[in-house]
TrEMBL record:
The keyword Ribosomal protein applies. Pfam families: Ribosomal_L21p. This is Large ribosomal subunit protein bL21. This protein binds to 23S rRNA in the presence of protein L20. GO terms for biological process: translation. It comes from Faunimonas pinastri.
Length: 105
């Protein structure tokens, strides 16, 4: 049994006991979060939503919050003193999927 969920503008294929890295969520480590935007439930009889599967949800537990590696953005144009240097570190959350609800088998 697996599900396709949407969070943070991205889609993820998840199953029970999977650990995934997603965009940062509010909450502390150990708290439970529920993803209500389920696009598909897979298994013996797959259910595809239009656009969402009604009554389906995925429960997960927050494992930890982390930051990604630093990315350097450097822009240079061929004019004198036309340079810009900037950096970015993305925040993300690691969650463990605990269960998939609403699956009619």
């Amino acid at each position: 049994m697996f599900a396709v969920i949407k969070t943070g503008g991205k889609q993820y294929r998840v199953a029970a006991n999977d650990t995934i890295q997603i965009e940062k969520l509010p909450g502390e480590a150990g708290e439970t979060v529920t993803f209500g935007e389920v696009l598909m439930l897979g298994g013996e009889q797959p259910q595809v939503g239009a656009p969402l599967v009604q009554g389906a949800s995925v429960a997960a537990e927050i494992v930890e919050h982390k930051r990604g590696r630093k990315i350097i953005i450097f822009k240079k144009r061929r004019r004198q003193n036309s340079r810009r240097k900037n950096g970015h570190r993305q925040d993300y959350t690691i969650v463990r999927i605990t269960g998939i609800a609403g699956a009619a088998q």
